[in-house]
Design brief:
The complex is a heterodimer.
Chain A: H1 3-13, E1 18-22, E2 25-30, H2 32-44, E3 50-58, E4 66-73, E5 80-87, E6 92-94, H3 103-114, E7 117-119, E8 149-151, E9 155-157, H4 176-179
Parallel strand pairs in A: 2-5, 6-7
Antiparallel strand pairs in A: 1-2, 3-4, 4-5, 8-9
Chain B: H1 13-22, H2 39-48, E1 53-57, H3 61-69, E2 92-96, H4 101-113, E3 119-123, H5 124-129, E4 150-152, H6 159-174
Parallel strand pairs in B: 1-2, 2-3, 3-4
Chain lengths: ~180, ~190
């Protein structure tokens, strides 16, 4: 079975799913309601036994706001399939950590950095920042410099100075040379 | 070194008398083994030549720190080869690498466990100022948490730079005035 066959099987079984091919890579986009069923089908019927990566995208300004991207593969590496789903801010998505154990930490990272809740996750704690940190830093509205936060005796953060240093990218500068972070 | 043997008969008698007079105040058993100094100078001399580092290796600077400790650069020439991974046996914390906010209070906690007198070397750009990590995740210089004695520039610094930083710290320790008020303000930082 090829990746194309796998994508076609998914679109045939689930009406809401759409498939696209781009440069030999196959992506199926599904609705959040079908997401869990699609993932179970991929694991059970298409023998996509490996979850290579799970990530999230913040499409601020679009509705729904977030996209979740799961990279699936067979163990013999013959088939790669990307599964995408779009969810709105505040919505929950069912976990797949019971299907692929590796999804456990990936979903924790998505929760930590993007603030997307996974229902049914066994241990949805932050993984990079500490428990109690009030922000989700990879969201578009969060500034690179950070925001001040304070948890006495646990942790604190401050705002990093972003002007004047040699290591700061100049957004909107005319050329790549001017925009690159280097000593000026 | 002064001699402890009695003058031989060959010596001039006047010379022998002078020697005897000069040594009359000393106990002949310990004569020649005594050095006079100030207690501060003696203590500073001992401290600066046996600095036991607490290696707080957090990033690539730690690789240079390891290189400094090994044979080519050999930090033991300066009496600082005893890397202690227990803060209670350390004199100087070498913060080598990027201090994230998540790590920051752990560094502070280790520092608080080190007994006085203690010193801190901020090794490299990240430990000194956050370096190239102008980011929500990185503490912009360990001096926001601990009193730093020596900053070493570089990304990462060469082992020679670390050794010079250590020598600068030794010079600083040598000049410290009183054993009583050593780093008395370190708890206020």
């Amino acid at each position: 079975m090829t990746a194309k066959d796998s994508a076609e099987k998914v679109t045939k079984k689930f009406e809401s799913a759409t498939a696209i091919e781009f440069r030999g890579e196959h992506t199926v986009t599904v609705t959040p309601d079908d997401f869990r069923a699609v993932m179970e089908y991929c694991k059970a019927e298409l023998s996509l036994d490996m979850l290579l990566d799970a990530s999230s995208v913040d499409n601020t300004g679009e509705d729904p706001r977030f996209a979740l991207v799961y990279e699936l593969a067979t163990v013999d590496d013959s088939v790669h399939l990307r599964v995408k789903t779009n969810i709105a801010e505040g919505d929950e998505i069912p976990t797949v950590s019971d299907l692929w154990a590796t999804a456990d930490w990936h979903e924790r990272e998505i929760w930590d950095m993007m603030g997307i809740q996974f229902s049914g996750h066994p241990d949805l704690r932050r993984i990079l920042m500490w428990e109690g940190y009030p922000f989700h830093p990879l969201r578009k509205e969060f500034p690179l410099a950070g925001k001040p936060s304070e948890m006495p005796d646990v942790a604190f953060t401050g705002e990093a100075p972003l002007e004047g240093g040699p290591f700061v990218t100049s957004a909107g500068a005319g050329s790549r040379v001017e925009a690159e972070p280097r000593a000026k | 070194m002064a001699t402890t043997e009695t003058p031989t008969k060959d010596l001039d008698t006047a010379e022998a008398a002078r020697t005897e007079l000069a040594h009359a105040a000393y106990d002949s058993k310990i004569e020649g083994n005594v050095i006079f100094t100030r207690v501060d100078a003696a203590i500073n001399w001992m401290r600066k030549n046996s600095l036991w580092p607490m290696p707080m290796g957090l990033a690539c600077c730690a690789i240079e720190l390891m290189a400094t400790a090994s044979s080519r650069f050999d930090i033991s020439r300066f009496g600082a080869e005893v890397m202690r991974f227990s803060p209670r046996q350390s004199d100087v914390m070498i913060v080598a690498g990027t201090v994230t906010y998540k790590m920051a209070l752990a560094v502070k906690r280790v520092w608080d466990q080190m007994p006085e007198p203690k010193w801190c070397i901020a090794m490299g750009a990240c430990a000194s100022s956050g370096g190239m990590y102008r980011s929500y995740a990185v503490l912009q210089g360990i001096d926001q948490l601990l009193p730093v004695d020596v900053y070493i520039s570089g990304c990462p610094p060469r082992p020679e730079a670390l050794i010079e930083g250590l020598m600068k710290l030794q010079k600083k320790i040598d000049g410290e005035e009183s054993t009583m008020d050593l780093k008395s303000d370190s708890t206020e930082a």
